[in-house]
Amino acid sequence: MKRVLLSLSLLLSTASAAPVTLNALFMKQAAYSEANIKDMTKAFEAKNPNIKVNLEFVPYEGLHDKIVSSASAGTNGYDVVLFDVIWPTEFAKNSFLVDVTNRIPAADNARVFSGAWTTVTAGGKRYGMPWILDTKYLYYNKAILKKAGIAAPPRTWAELQQQAATIKAKGLVEYPIVWSWSQAEALICDYTTLISAFGGQFYAGGKPVFNTGGGLKALQYMTDSLKSGVSNPNSKEYLEEDVRKVFSDGKAAFALNWTYMYNMANDPKQSKVAGQVGIVPAPGVAGVSQVSAMNGSMGLGIPTGSAHKDEAWRFIQYLTSAPVQEQFAQLSLPIWKASYSKPAVTKGQEALVKAAGTSLNVMFPRPTIAQYPQLSTVLQTALQKALLGSQTPAQALDAAARTASRFR
């Protein structure tokens, strides 16, 4: 009997120590780089020798469908996935992600920015840990502004147009402003930033209202900036990486982009404007707003089909921990409030942290509805029609609102 019990004990011990392989899905662009994530993972594996992590990187535009198709197939394809703030309602409705509310220590509630928690919350439950706390900022080229005789970056969107017109008139840059207005989610992010500035809303009383008030003014601003010649016409085909490259080549005085661009545009190995990169919160509108910002944050969750939920949660806890986020705070800022007093986060990027201190507290959300992907597609199409001039802003948004009235 003793031999049987001993054998059973050894068997159980061996089983518990059996190596586990996790499959994790991340995106290629913006926020933490592939190199960052690989370094984080290598350090995690060193601390957890029985866990191996296979990393997969896809463009942001393919991230949603990868998660959905894997979950819909009922496979154990992924154990950890990166997801956008706009997807939790859809994912919760379809049971794509595990409810991890009870796994999160209560003490973390006050330690993490409240805006970060909205990234992973649906129906009062949490479906992951926030990881990328992000919004779009206004970047400007200090040298170009100085040559144009402009003492300070714009505080309002109207001032941005005026300064851009001055820069263009002086022949310093052909198209002073560059945007990510390709028919993709990037376009919705820029539009949302402007909606927040003009005091608009997407929905009110359960009905779409983005075709009125601030929503209409936001699109009118976008089309006017193209017509006036101060915005790069190729913006209609650009994503965020295109914006970064144009700005880093010194071909734009202003750009709207995520946190990650700050240190990359200041890196002389990949930028011609290193040392001349300024950053401030996106402007406001006189009499309406002081600044503008949209919630572009992302979280890490566990698909319901994962066979290794405990190990997956351990990996998520490691990646989202304050020490790891503080170590890799150059392309994405931490979710932890206390981190913003740490030299590891602030040193060398004081201007970025200062801008974040304002913007992260006023992030405006995109609609949190289960059919957000369908709404986004409708809005992308409408915005593009207006930007291309085939419809007026009012015509494009009115048509989109009629379709969007069916979405919940």
TrEMBL record:
Give the SUPFAM superfamilies listed for this entry: Periplasmic binding protein-like II
Signal listed as a keyword:
yes
Q: Which UniProt keywords apply?
A: Signal
Q: Does the keyword Signal apply?
A: yes
The residue range of the signal peptide is 1-17
Full protein name:
Extracellular solute-binding protein
Organism encoding this protein: Deinococcus sonorensis
